Amino acid sequence: MTRLLHRQTSSGEDPFPSIVVSSSDDPYGSENHARACAAAWGSEWIDAGARGHLNAQSGLGDWADELKLVEKLQAR
After folding, report:
1. What GO molecular function terms would the record report (predicted)?
2. Residue 52, Cβ density class (10 Å: 0-12 exposed, 13-18 middle, ≥19 buried)
3. Could you read off the pLDDT of 33-48 as tens digits, one per residue?
4. 42: which of 2, 4, 10, 18 lies 20 to 30 Å off by Cα?
């Protein structure tokens, strides 16, 4: 399993608005891990439901929900 590595700021939170979106049945990372990352980074966490691993092979196509999240971030 590949682990995500990141460098934290001194406060632990990202210095910019962010959203972590995770799937409830991702075989590469648990929901608890995604929630913990979101909390550590000061990000909003969103459950995308049971969609497997969120990548190009997930069959999401042009994911309309993702566009709404980008718009939400741009509004901050």
Report:
1. hydrolase activity
2. middle
3. 999 999 999 999 999 9
4. 2
Residue showing tokens 């959203």? 19
Alpha carbon 74 to its chain's center: 16
- pTM of the predicted model as reported, rounded to 2 decimal places: 0.71
66 burial class (0-12, 13-18, 19+ CB within 10 angstroms)?
Answer: middle
Closest to 20 measured CA to CA, from 38, 39, 2: 38
CA distances for 39 relative to 31, 47, 58, angstroms: 12, 14, 25
The SS3 call for residue 31 is helix
